[in-house]
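Standup notes, protein team

Yesterday: finished cleaning the Nocardia brasiliensis set.
Today: DUF4254 domain-containing protein structure.
Blockers: none.

Input for DUF4254 domain-containing protein:
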Amino acid sequence: MCPRHDECSPVSEAGAAASEALAAQLGNQLGKCPLPTRSEVLQACRDAVRDGHPLLRAAGELTALHRRRLILARRITGEIDEYRAQQVHAIDRWVAPRLPVAHGGAYLHTETVGAVLDRLARLTARAEAALAAESDWDIWFAWERLAELSVGYEDLVAELATGRRRLPTGS
């Protein structure tokens, strides 16, 4: 059960098997239960969540998948990922001194410009790959995600230029 609401039930095992069913369940439950707090999400990412808010369970499962991927990726894609990380860092080092000083109340963006560009590159590669092998829905979804992120990038650039947004430090 949701820690804040009894009417929020966890995602069923059958629902977790199919992404469309999971999305439908999450969508149905969202109206009854607010989105989890930052602390709840971070806790769910650290510890396996067996019940509770459906998004917390999903976040925990995603973290487990990323942990497995990291272990496997070191064997398979370690060199590529290391070079990507170097590229992201180089982008961030180039961007940082060129930004205007952010206003005192500027909102913090969750990613650096390098990380956003890395995601744009990943989504571009996925969208191109979807053209060859996926259903019409998957093609549309891949290109839609790419379009949304590219608009988000454009918004980020505009907000950085005016000092309304700032980037995380220490990356």
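Follow-up from PR in the comments: Helices lie at 13-17, 19-30, 38-46, 54-76, 78-95, 113-133, 136-162.
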